[in-house]
Fold this sequence. Notes:
Blueprint: H1 3-8, H2 12-33, H3 38-77, H4 87-106, H5 110-134, E1 142-143, E2 157-158, H6 160-181, H7 185-208, E3 212-214, E4 220-221, E5 233-236, H8 243-262
Antiparallel strand pairs: 1-2, 3-4, 3-5
Helix pairs in contact: 2-3, 3-4, 3-5, 3-6, 4-5, 4-8, 5-6, 5-7, 5-8, 6-7, 7-8
Amino acid sequence: MSALDSVLSSYPVARVVIYLLILSFVAVLASKRGYLTNGGIASAFFLGFFLLYALGFSGFVLYLFFFISSSAFTAVVDKGKGGKRTFSQVVANGTAPFAGLLIFLFSPHKELGLVMFSSSIAEATADTWASEGGLLSKKPPRSIITGTSVPKGTSGGVSALGTLFAFLGALSLSMIATGVFRLGFKSFLIILTSGFLGSFFDSFLGATLEARYSDKDGRLTYSRYDDEGIENHRLRGLPIVDNDMVNLLSGFFASTLSFVLMLF
């Protein structure tokens, strides 16, 4: 807990007001920058307040790093055409960290909760950096299952450049988490490993269980419905497993992996 958090803990009303003001400022900035939809702002506001109240500004640093770096990365790579995160996307990336916070708050294993929380955010950071960074590669990605070349942007495709960005994303987040939470070297390695491997699990799910569709013109899409609300033809995968579900499961994979590694 930072010095400011220690002071604010003695003034609960002021603490809540300051947290709300900070989140409101971030929400307005995110809206103007086009990082979030209205639903995304609402869900991020709720998760951000819970995070601030549970971990103070130290935990909020991780949240901001993932959100700002990933949103900016997406906007730059997509040349300003992308980057807006919806309600479901925020919830998909925020549920696993939320579970880590609950362990931190309601169990005696405080460091375990912090590591699980950090690992899930490290996975989300690594996955987003890998997805966007991979688009910059001059070589087409390869399927994580078959090893054959696939078009850029294909779920389950990996590349050397994307893998490098995944590692850098997980490394950056694990270094920040270790610093703000004052964790040991073992925890640092676990967060890094869980976040990095979690991004590969995301690719594995994308290549196997994530649903793919063909629209009325025969083009590949990951959307179940077209712009007119007509259901596209499913080519493979499970209807329930969309990109948001993949992100949700990958976050819990990283969190669970860190839990197991902390036992040794």
